[in-house]
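Hi F.,

I've been meaning to write this up properly since the lab meeting, where we talked about keeping a consistent format for the predictions we share between groups. The idea is simple: the sequence comes first, exactly as it goes in, then the structure tokens exactly as they come out, then a line or two of notes. No screenshots and no reformatting. I'm using this chain as the first example so we have something concrete to point to.
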Amino acid sequence: NPSSMPHTTPKSSCVIVPVQNQQDTLEAQVQNLWGWLHAATNRFEVVIVVDGSTDQSPEIGQQLADDLPQVKFARHEKPLGCQAVIHTGLFVSVGILIFVMDKPLRKPDPKLQKQTSDDGLIECLIQAGLHFREYRLYRRQAEKRLVYDQSHNGHSGSHFDLTRQRRTTFNKSS
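Output, unedited:
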């Protein structure tokens, strides 16, 4: 009897969206991602991380974050690379199930239903085309971390304070 089966809710999920000079496709990609997530779960967030774009991607990303609930925005002034983008997304996120959108997704299936388990949600989002990155069991929000700008050999970067979720730039003295 399905009604007597226990109903569970999947853990919160986060999709990190790396962006570099994608002004022509960013809005459509995030809207498509939003469709998948909204159909599959109620507990999600999208973190758009612009990595040194020279086009209008930062403005579009910020506007999407302003317009859509559960969308966050972060920006690297200079290109730092894929690992730094993922780290920034992790610092900004609060989700437990972490995915990375590294390619355009399929269109959402109109018959897609809310998932009732972590495994169901993971499988659903992998089928959509997301890369499952991490299952974070423990999160230390008070821990401070550093991300260094590799192009400057670690002499400048960003300091992320997870307790206040703010970013300040700094210069490391020799």
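Notes:
The first strand starts at residue 13 and ends at 19.
The mean pLDDT is 76.

If this format works for you, I'll send the rest the same way.

G.
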